[in-house]
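Agenda item 2: NAP complex prediction
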Amino acid sequence: MSAKLIDGKLISASVRQQVTDDTAAFTAETGVTPHLAAVLVGDDPASQVYVRNKERACGKCGLKSTLHRLSDQTTQQQLMDLVAELNADESVHGILVQLPLPKHLDSTPVLDSIRPSKDVDGFHPENVGLMLQGRPRFLPCTPHGVMKMLEHENIDTAGKHAVVIGRSDIVGKPMAGLLVQKGADATVTICHSRTTDIAAVIRQADIVVAAVGIPEFVKGDMIKPGAVAIDVGINRVNDKLVGDVEFSAAAERASAITPVPGGVGPMTIAMLLRNTLEAAKQSL
Ligand code: NAP
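Presented output:
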């Protein structure tokens, strides 16, 4: 392997330490403990693990977290009522509704109903708009985590061709939005399932961000020698976690690469903690 490994565990630990210190100072000064309310509907095993990890991380950094577990029989109205209750609760600073929701529930009205000042995932249309205009309230956690990794590794994005694979509202689109902002200054191409000759597009990239959800979708020979490969994908294959990038072959050509697990995943949680602290600060 010739690429430098971008260690998400290490970088996220430093972000979490900073959040821990800042939270301690904030709580000492104001008497307020930042509080994240997480909502988990149903019993999807991966979601349970994600929520547990988020709760644990909150505790370690001095943040309060409360988990609201709802059965998979929950109605749209019951879920919306819970969000309304959390919106009104002044002791709650951040609200997180773990996705995906069971199939009978529509996530769009639920996410739209979260008060933007408590939307620590950064999914609300108001926060997406502010982010795109370059005056963010909360940055979406996964794309923000990727930007933080690039910054930590001194990878300059200015003038670079960044190819983002995936156009979801939670990863691909906001990722492209952050890379193109003034300050980041990348030239951005977004690929999706209708992109023609995607391999040729990826081969032009100085920075590849893969958020597809298909194991090893990006083959090693699609990576331009010296490019940076950021793997957002988390796919379970025979009880093993595999990314969207064919890691060993890509690592032979890339200058830097993120592993799965231990890459972008831990960064997402760290940025959620930072947003929760920010929400508490902004609430005063
Ligand atoms: P998603 O909503 O399913 O979006 C996947 C995107 O990939 C879509 O835009 C889709 O295109 C595109 N795509 C699918 N097949 C393709 C193909 N054959 N060629 C080109 N593009 C294709 O997924 P997501 O929520 O963005 O998540 C993506 C991955 O990241 C998943 O593995 C997820 O588990 C992981 N993830 C990780 C973190 C983390 O913290 N590390 C956080 C969130 C998500 P269309 O729009 O045309 O359908």
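Discussion summary: The mean pLDDT is 97.
Owner for follow-up: CH.
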